[in-house]
Amino acid sequence: FTIALPFLYVALYFIFAVLGLWSLAVLSLVALSFVTYGSISHDLVHRNLGLPKSANDLFLSVIELLTLRSGHAYRMAHLHHHARFPHSDDIEGAAAGMSFSRMMLEGVIFQFKIWFWAVKRPSKDRPLILLEGFACLLMVLMSLVLYSVTPILLIYVVLMIMGSWIIPLITSYIPHNPRGEDELLQTRLFRGKVLSVVALEHTYHLEHHLYPAVPHHNWPQLAKRLDPYFQEAGLKPIRLWF
Description:
Blueprint: H1 4-18, H2 22-46, H3 53-66, H4 71-84, H5 100-120, H6 126-145, H7 152-164, H8 167-173, H9 193-198, H10 205-210, H11 219-233
Helix pairs in contact: 1-2, 2-3, 2-4, 2-7, 4-5, 5-6, 5-8, 6-7
């Protein structure tokens, strides 16, 4: 189900777009953006879904290409983030230490930044990262060429690019505190029914940093197990009302 979900959202977009139901088409892509970088592609980055390595890497490439991003550049940047945050060379977590206005600009350039950063680093994945980047460019060019036939592809491309702009806000600026004294304080703890509903059970960033091998569908259970430890450590969770 996890692997099928991004393809389902893409299919729903095209079905709704062809039918002229644009509000539902846009919502389908909002959901696609949310579940890829934030959870499904994220699980593929950490290889924690139990898939064979070749299948895992194939789905990482294909699913991130659906959102016009390089999956293997994402993996390189994200694993580096886990190893280096809050050091200055953490390209993914850098937005946590920026001003709000600078962070918003970071969203516009972020995918270009991590792609060029990944290409410059010595890695066996470098040819694949280059290929993924060119595939994204080809998708953009195809949507422009086919615009006279149908605007649906170009609208898809534009919405996907815009959806990526909030990644530094959601994955870095909000959940991280680069001035925290230790690992427990460098990533914020979130709790509460309201936040859980708003974020669709994606509020477990501290838990993820502590146990990155746990896939996203098990985060709520992980959080319950860790709550007594957090309380003993004196952590005060951030809540939105209740």
